[in-house]
What does this fold into?
Amino acid sequence: MISSIESQLIQQAMSSAGADTSTNGVSQHLIDKFQALLAQEPAQVSGQSAPENNMLKQAIQKQDDADHQFPNDMSYISTHMGEWNVGQAASATMLVQYEITQASMNLQFKMAAAQSSKNAVDTLMKNQ
It folds into this structure.
């Protein structure tokens, strides 16, 4: 209902501005075909993906798993810290420090990759 009101208001505004609201010579058949294509869902890609895509997918999945492990470890440590002896608490603290360092290194790597990509695009634009 609202979209039909909006389209009517747009048509009226364009008409009052003197704009041509026709389809500019495009046949109704092509308009219907275009709308049918927009209504369809994207086709599913079938077949095996390239091996390098699988390798990349696995690397991303491992990194994602590692990123999810840190909050899980922190939750476990904060819940059970009172039950542990000094050695277990020290071990858990070292694990947290290791995971923080790993997350920091991962962030630095991603920032360096993004900066490198930005520099490459800047250089390309300057050379154009």
